[in-house]
Amino acid sequence: MKKYLLLLAVSGLFLTSCEKCKDCEIAIDLDNSYPLTDADCQASFGMNCEDYLTNAYSAAEYCGDELEAIESTADVTGVGYRVYWDCK
Fold first, then answer.
1. Which of 18, 38, 56, 74 has the smallest count of CB within 10 Å of its CB?
2. Quick one: DSSP state of residue 73?
3. 42 three-class SS
4. Residue 37, domain member (yes or no)
5. Residue 35: what pLDDT?
6. Are 38 and 46 in contact (CB under 8 A)?
7. Quick check: 25 and 59 in contact, CB under 8 A?
8. Tell me: the pLDDT tens digits for 29-87?
9. Cα–Cα distance measured from residue 53 to residue 31, given in angstroms and rounded to the nearest whole number
């Protein structure tokens, strides 16, 4: 029994994942080129601008193919804002 447990413990060391993982979240930069305010977003969408722009995404840890897809995603820009993934 001890040999079995030792073998199981040692094999677990070799089966651990080596995938690269990062914590990612959507980030927003609002600039002054268009005076979009939280009051505008509240009136139009019922929430502040940052919540509206990130509503469909949540911060999470991404690994492997998902992480590569996120890191290769182009920024979304518009008049007065830039939305992008921030991974650390």
1. 18
2. P
3. helix
4. yes
5. 67
6. no
7. yes
8. 877 776 677 888 889 889 987 787 777 777 899 999 999 999 999 998 887 788 899 99
9. 14
Q: What are residue 15's phi and psi, to 5 degrees?
A: -95, 0
Does residue 9 lie within any of the structural domains?
no
Range of the domain at 47: 20-87
CA distance linking residue 48 with residue 37, whole number of Å: 8
The verdict on residue 41 lying in a domain is yes
Place of tokens 């890191």: 71
Q: How far is CA 16 from the centre of its chain?
A: 24
12 part of a folded domain: no
Number of domains in the chain: 1
Q: State the Cα–Cα distance between residues 79 and 56, nearest whole angstrom.
A: 21
CB–CB of 76/82 below 8 Å?
yes
- Decide if 85 contacts 22 (C-beta within 8 A): no
pTM above 0.90, yes or no: no
